[in-house]
Design brief:
46% of the residues lie in helices and 13% in strands. It has 348 residues and is α/β, with parallel strands linked by helices. It has three domains: 183 residues, Rossmann fold; 86 residues, Helicase, Ruva Protein, domain 3 (Orthogonal Bundle), CATH 1.10.8.60; 49 residues, Orthogonal Bundle (Arc Repressor Mutant, subunit A), CATH 1.10.10.60. The protein has a five-stranded parallel β-sheet. A two-stranded antiparallel ribbon has the order 3-4. Strand 6 and strand 7 form a beta hairpin. The radius of gyration is 25 Å and the shape is globular.
Length: 348
């Protein structure tokens, strides 16, 4: 039973604990650009700060695009392993027949196509952190081998008879409910508890509305438009968007809109999100992004279609930093077609 004299002590203890964690929380924000104005994210960072310096395994859950890898990198950067490698791998992107070779490595001749020795990702992360994204997609046979490797601190390359010592901290992430996978038998219970020493859930962007504005400001700064401001009308549209792709979608939308705003002269800018688009009037977007409408004619001098096309291509290339692949994507043409048009423009 809590007495009255105990209550101030307990409150003071919690306050002291938060004070001790403040430098770590600041470090988590600074090194990873984590935005935490919302209560949900502030709570998450406080919990993350308390385990950052440990070697304990961490399981991070959350929808796609919420920033699970960002949190993992922040934990690594604020740990005693910060000077050692951070190796990230998307388990879902590796074919089932190759995942053991990718994680543990293989020796020359271990299988058809193994022409050289290959160092596994666990060996590459030795002394540091191994981040396994989409851990729920790992095939069951590999789950057993990973559990053994974590238990023994040793791995064996495919085709080799020798064991190699590895020292890694493992941080895993998933957009699935792993507890349900355990209940259905799709994921090993013993591995689940081995990975879930600490568990963090990164909230969806729609559940942390207080973070929308600072996130937009951060992405604008990354686009070279620090201090830029949207109008209230634009903010109304941004806040009303459901953001199914979360923070990743928001960043891509701001980048996409910034590029288009620099190269298009229409009265509106389409902030695209998959098949849909936010249609924001140009007057409501920041001037710092170069959103003032540009006339396609120079005074009263009318230009040819080829001249207009060449000028437009130049503006897109400039906005993309000379990246022809990105420019071709925005222009809706192939890279070869873009190269041909650039060559034609240079000749003219």
């Amino acid at each position: 039973m809590t007495t009255r004299c105990q209550e101030p002590y307990e409150k003071g203890s919690r306050l002291c604990a938060v004070c001790r964690l403040s430098p770590v929380i600041d470090g988590l924000k600074r090194c990873s650009r984590l935005v935490a104005r919302s209560p949900a994210m502030q709570t998450l960072l406080q919990r993350a700060a308390s385990v950052a310096a440990t070697d304990a395994s961490v399981l991070v859950s959350g929808e796609t695009g919420t920033g699970k890898e960002v949190l993992a990198r922040a934990l690594h950067a604020n740990s005693t392993r910060a000077s050692r490698p951070f190796v990230a791998v998307n388990v879902a992107a590796i074919p089932a027949e190759l995942i053991e070779s990718e994680l543990f490595g293989h020796v020359k001749g271990a299988f058809t196509g193994a022409l050289t020795h290959h160092t596994g990702l666990m060996q590459a992360a030795h002394g540091g952190t191994l981040f396994l994204d989409e851990i729920g997609e790992m095939p069951q046979p590999m789950q057993a081998k990973l559990l053994r490797a974590l238990h023994d601190g040793e791995v064996r390359k495919v085709g080799d008879s020798r064991m190699e010592s590895v020292d890694v901290r493992v941080i895993c992430a998933t957009h699935r409910n792993l507890a349900d996978h355990v209940a259905s038998g799709a994921f090993r219970q013993d591995l689940y508890y081995r990975l879930k020493v600490f568990a963090f859930h990164v909230p969806a962007l729609r559940d942390r509305p207080e973070d929308l504005q600072p996130l937009v400001e951060m992405f604008l700064e990354m686009e070279g438009a620090a201090g830029a401001r949207f109008t209230d009308e634009a903010w109304k549209l941004l806040r009303g968007w459901p953001w199914p792709g979360n923070v990743r979608e928001l960043g891509n939308v701001i980048k996409h809109g910034a590029v288009l705003a620099r190269v298009e002269s229409s009265a509106h800018v389409q902030l695209r999100s998959g098949p849909r688009a936010l249609r924001i009037a140009r007057e409501h977007l920041p001037d710092e992004l170069g959103l003032q409408a540009r006339a396609l004619s120079n005074g009263n001098v009318l230009r040819t279609l080829a001249e207009v096309e060449s000028s437009h291509i130049e503006r897109v290339l400039q906005a993309c930093g000379g990246n022809q692949v990105a420019a071709a994507r925005i222009l809706g043409v192939g890279r070869t077609t873009l190269w041909r048009k650039m060559k034609l423009g240079a000749e003219n």
